[in-house]
Write a structure and sequence with these properties.
The protein has 671 residues and is an alpha+beta fold. The strands form 7 sheets. Strands 13, 14, 15, 16, 17, 18 and 19 form a 7-stranded antiparallel β-sheet that branches. The chain is elongated.
Length: 671
Amino acid sequence: MAVPEKARMRAEALRREIETHNYRYYVLDAPTIPDAEYDRLFKQLQRLERKHPDLVSADSPTRRVGAAPQTKFPKVVHRVPMLSIRNESAKKFDERCRKGLGLDEIEYAAEPKLDGLAVTLVYKSGVLTLGATRGDGKTGENFTANLRTVKNIPPRLKGRGKPNKVEVRGEVLFPIAEFANLNEQQRLRGEREFVNPRNAAAGSVRQLDPSVTAQRPLSFFAYGVADGVKGIARHSDLLDRLEKWGIPVAPQRRVVWGLRGLLEYYDYIRTQRDELPYEIDGVVYKVNSLADQARLGFAHREPNFAAAHKYPPREETTQIVDIDVQVGRTGTLTPVARLIPVFVGGVTVTNATLHNEDEIRRKDIRIGDFVIVRRAGDVIPEVVRVAIERRPDNVRQFLMPTSCPVCGSSVVKLPDEAAARCSGGLFCPAQRKQAILHFASRRAMDIEGLGDKLVDQLVDRAVIKTPADLYQYKLDVAALTELDRMAEKSAKNVLGAIDRSRKTTLARFIYALGIRNVGEATAADLARHFGSLDRLAQASEEELQQVQDVGPVVAMSIRRFFTEPHNLEVIKQLRAGGVNWEEGAPAPGKKAGAFEGKTFVLTGTLPSMTREEARERIESHGGKVAGSVSKKTDFVVAGDEAGSKLDKARELGIAIVDEAGLRKMFEEASA
């Protein structure tokens, strides 16, 4: 029967497309589509060829493996071809094998499907003499010097019973944990980044200079033997023998019986997948008996005795419909891609994080682009890269908004940060819970009892919207006792803590405002330098930089906070609610003294003041309080039951004072 012209043209188009992707994947180590999309193209061609056998040709991608090796590397002809294995479900594989062998139940060897670079290693008289890549399955590339640098590939086999010559097949892998670091190094050098760990493994091996390969944290795991091992009846025993010779094999391998065993193994490895240090994309099943493997034989490019049972793809291609911006609890603005729904990682994905504006520019992501989306385990889906070759003409650039999409406050991006942030920290609904929790924290306004669960309820039920609402009349015993797990006594305790917090210090209040980059020490320095909140709020960036340890970035954060009208309104409401502190004249300027520029460490229990009180007084006199003793420490203030910090101070010869000595230093500094 004649092949329809439409089918012939489609087959030719698929072959061209698949060959292009083979070349990019196997030769250039620069794939442009996910494995799942490649698999779909390949299956389309297989279906066409099955339906129209006259379409089949010897050079069809369905009859070959990989792509031709590059000419710049020495070639190696594989005496035993390096074949790929078919993708197949456990049920279909088991049915096919039982039918082919005439057995009711079969013993199988199962192992993870490692996603790396396929290589072959030849040992003669126990010594590694050749290492080569798969290439097109018949001819590969000689990378012996490079593969000798892979740390867990033994240069010499150990143990007894080694054959005169053995050819081992396996995968070179790049660890997931090191992948991001490698790409960061590539960026810093202005070199091409790797698409995924498999791509990184291939690129690391296929180097002209073996010293480059030696610097990469590569590993190798064997999955079989092409030739050279005699007297072994089962595939699992073969891998055990390799392990005894010092050749690493996957520790997760198992021997299982029948379809039930295959499915249980598939589920087991799926639960382990996110914990494995290397990428896998499924599991591999093999008939365990080597004699039965020989009986089943081969079909074109694939062995009949093995199959790959893949997991749902972690990467897929889809299109960005739009880019929105979400505001987090701390005010960070995160761009989020709205996608044409795509099934990836076992779920339908409609959104993916783009991290920040710098990341969007670096990856050149535009609205309307076709992109590769990745989802691994419970990790939030992200856009890995753009399919540039599929970019439509009508794509649009994304611009980060200049005002917060939630509250309308101005958006600030500091020079040393990648993230853009909403400046309305005290007002923005997206930041309410975090702002109130920080405001009430022990080192800020110290409102005991106002924790996460209570704040969640107060905000979720719209009882309070800003920290100022804590001091308004509507927050009373009746309002609190309506909340879960809040009895009358507990409500009164919280209200009492709120009332006590009205009297505070300027330093604590500044810290409680949650200004970006302003911690306790900086808040104390600002309070001491300006003496009043109004003077601080009106200070220019130049004036702010006159304060100890306040540089351009911190000064910008403070200035932007106090120029945001929403923040000033909340401060006004806090004062109206009775929050107050003592103010004084601005510091006359830095003067040398016992505390100025000195670092103190507090340890043990002081007789008549808390460590927090001691900290505040030291900082008010110009000193700093650190948490640990080092050579930079000037004084250690020791109380009762002082521990290892006191011992270290004695060891380093640091001055040690008790509370009486500290009070004397305060008196001398004030004189």
